[in-house]
Amino acid sequence: MIGYLLFYAGLLISLIIGLLYFRDLGDIPQLVIKTKRVNVDLFIRNEYQFLAIGGGAWLVSAIVHLGFGVGPSWLFWIATIWTGALVAFVWVYVHKGLRNQKELIHYS
Predict the structure, then answer these.
(1) pTM (predicted TM-score)
(2) Greatest alpha-carbon span in the chain
(3) For 59-99, what is each residue's pLDDT tens digit?
(4) Which residue ranges traverse the bilayer (predicted)?
């Protein structure tokens, strides 16, 4: 019972953080969805904390799933690939694609 709670909560938390990260820092979603500047600033200032929480939540679900066989494999792998793609796309774009602008930004 607790294993299923950890599995689903871990996947849900990591997926939500991946979606919010993609929504608030990705340029493609910002073409379609109006994001609030407050949310963008929050993710810029606390990017690694959010990623650590999402990664930790995913790690809990991975340990429970792979170590104890809890939860369906198809759900685990689809959520893992989807979350990984969302986070990787934005991280590469922000840190590699915008690296020439990174040193010029001044926060107030």
Answers:
(1) 0.83
(2) 51
(3) 999 999 999 999 999 999 999 999 999 999 888 887 777 66
(4) 6-26, 47-68, 74-94
> Would you say 17 and 53 are in contact if contact means Cβ atoms under 8 Å apart?
yes
The count of other CB atoms within 10 Å of the CB of residue 51 is 18
| Residue 84 to residues 24, 38, 97, Cα–Cα distance (Å) | 16, 25, 18
Residues 6+ apart with CB under 8 A from 58: 10, 11, 14, 80, 83
Per-residue model confidence as pLDDT tens digits over 13-64: 999 999 998 888 877 777 778 888 898 888 889 999 999 999 999 999 999 9
- Give the tokens for residue 38: 């407050």
Virtual torsion, Cα 77, 81, 86, 91, nearest 10 deg: 120
